[in-house]
Fold these 2 entries.
Entry 1:
Amino acid sequence: MSKKKQKGTNISETPRQDAFDAAWEKYRPLVPPEELPALEESLHKPLLQAFRLNPLKTDASALDDMSSRYGWAAEPIAFCPEGIRVRSAEILPSMTNEHRMGHYYIQDSASMMPGMLYDAERLNGSPLILDLAASPGGKTTHLIGRSMDRGLVIANDSSPSRIPALKTVLKNWGSVNHAITQFPGESYGDWFPNTFDLILLDAPCSMQSLVSLDSHPMRPITEREEKALAQRQTALLESALKALRPGGQIVYSTCTLSPDEDEAVVDSVLRTFPGKVHVCDAADRLPWPAPGLTSAYGNDFDSSLKGAVRLWPHRYETAGFFACLLEKTDYFEDEPDGKRAEAPYRAWEKSSFAPAKEAEIADLTAWLDDQFGLDLAEICADAGSLVQKRGSEFWMLPGRYLETFGSLPSKSIGMRIASQTPGGLVPDNDWVSRFFSHTSGNRIAVGDEDVNDWLHGADIRTEIGNLPKGAIVMILDQNGIFLGCGRISGERIRNFNK
């Protein structure tokens, strides 16, 4: 096995092959002997592309139309109802207008596991959610989708270089009730103890998954580096557990199969907080078993870790993955609130946002109703959001963030509704895309040639019917997919995507 190139896993380069060989020799003894033939066979098969539908913009009924339109042989992922695996395709999922407009998120199916482990009822209402290592944001969108964007998600990442990707993903997904922060995840537990209802820690790891992906390439890793990763993972998980309120749930996950970064990390926090954290058995969330390890390399782990999820690649046709659902059963400190460390502070008045005036909101509301048939007051009430201004821009901001974390500096928050320009109000395409299903009127469907020009930022000339000059219109493709807004100017439609 170690001398063979894995087909379809893109590890022909020597470093990746060396990394695979080392991982295979290391992990093979941990696999139940009766499963080894199936695992070996799976590693010679290409990993199938998968995506997860966005319930904020579409629903499962759209899948049949897309499958017919694009020639997909698609099927649900066994442990994730909104996840779809594509066995063959005439047009790749990455090449569709639905993908461009955020109707689904392309993601390895293993990465859909963390979002599915939480109790469904805990995602109802308005949960307060922390994603401690969020970028690039795929798993964050899963939490937003499962809560239907009615809670508040704080998406944190400590790396400045990873923040732009996180912003782009959440904007395309259509999230309003989120804030992006850039702080060491190890600090959140001291800043906000016993605060969050749900926490996700998809920890930085060695990526030893036995399947090399472009997003998670396998590479050689030393014992020293793995030990350093495990120390950081433990510190992050302890911080996350401190930030979790009693009765709350946390998912700890990695894209490595290393027990030192998986079961051993969870075992460590169980020992650090005895009787106050327990592993929730995930067996009832899976169609067939994928249990965690209770021992490895002569080390024993807490027996409850059998209830974790260890996705060897053959079990669900995924890359290797680990996930564990934990529940905090009691306070860690003597006092319920404990002693808080001082979090970074910035007065909200210095954030550049300010409440919009009633007259301004009334004018904006009337304009949105006139152009799109949208009821801004109803949309904001349903989302628990507030309208504020930043310069000439109107924004929809999560009210719960302002109430609870308003002084915590953020890199991005909420979603822009529209901008005031000399030519009048210009809607934000991502905001209209999010609420497109609520719109009516001012729609123009265009042909493929115009679609291509439009997506490249060009103005287009097309039949506009009786719409007056200056009207804002929504451009659709022939399948009714919203592509962006423009303004009628003479015989052309001015593209706001420029």
Note: The mean pLDDT is 93.
Entry 2:
Amino acid sequence: MAKQHEFQPDLPPPPSTVGPISWMRQNLFSSPLNSIMTLILAFLAVKGLWAVVDWAFINSDWIGTSREDCSKEGACWVFINVRFDQFMFGFYPQEELWRPQLFYAILAIFTGLLIYERTPKRGWILLTFLIAFPLMAVFLIFGDVAGLPKVETHLWGGLLITMIIAIVGIVVSLPIGVMLALGRRSDMPIIRSLCTVYIEVWRGVPLITVLFMASVMLPLFMSGESETNKLVRALIGVVMFSAAYMAEVVRGGLQAIPKGQYEAADALGLSYWKKMGLIILPQALKITIPSIVNTFIGLFKDTSLVLIIGMFDVLGIGQAANTDPNWLGFATESYVFVALVFWIFCFGMSRYSIYLENKLHTGHKR
């Protein structure tokens, strides 16, 4: 009886055809010209990176309290240490700094609880964050209640102002934008026309003009008894401006939903609001997560424009610190620190949006 043939397992591919080595051969060293360009660019990149590391870390000063403590040729981070409280809290009274610090801590706790998927009762936590936390933050930071001294908003600044404007703009503009998007797609001509006019008007005006009008021109049309706080006017302008852009983002998601989804919801006998809330909007918001987060990131960076109306955000504090006669010549350190602050928050939002995309991916991704 002939011996049955036995198939041997496949041999692994040669190491030079898989993994990092194969990728480098195909993309970086595929030809003599590519190899030369790769080596030149790698040399320049390493040289530039080493110069940055040497300036920022190796040959820099970190400890001290005055300009005389910056004796090396690299960065003087002593300047940032001395001005750190201003970068974080603006001109908030020193003896009351525990209040914005507590605000940061509570905000970080809420953010961590909402991001962590296994947090029990996340719905109630989100409701508390949206309703109770803003009121608590106002009483805590502004004061004039429960024995807390009153701190006027013109003393607020730095990252505190940036976070307040960004959080209010993001949280409030999203639902307003959703309503505007639904209104623009409404079958009622008046509602559709009003939403369309609102969106097109606000999208056609620069944010810097909106802030200027809210801060300078709006009080001229109001009586002296109804004068509104400058920060409140800025928040209203930012929210109304951002809501118009958010409406177009959401409208794009609504148009991307197949018509069959609308017809299926109608066949089930669902009302308009149930159809939108249970079937259409969840799908539309899911596929527009990248665009929504992109709008949020743009809004976060645009908070620096409040400098033109006399409010010192983290960038404004950096520019003000650069004019201090005792610290002239350290503008680079100031701008690097401000850029790092913006990058941390924007990168965090970007990565979380990618996480949400992967988590909610159910077939729309291509």
Note: The CA atoms of residues 104 and 160 lie 9 Å apart.
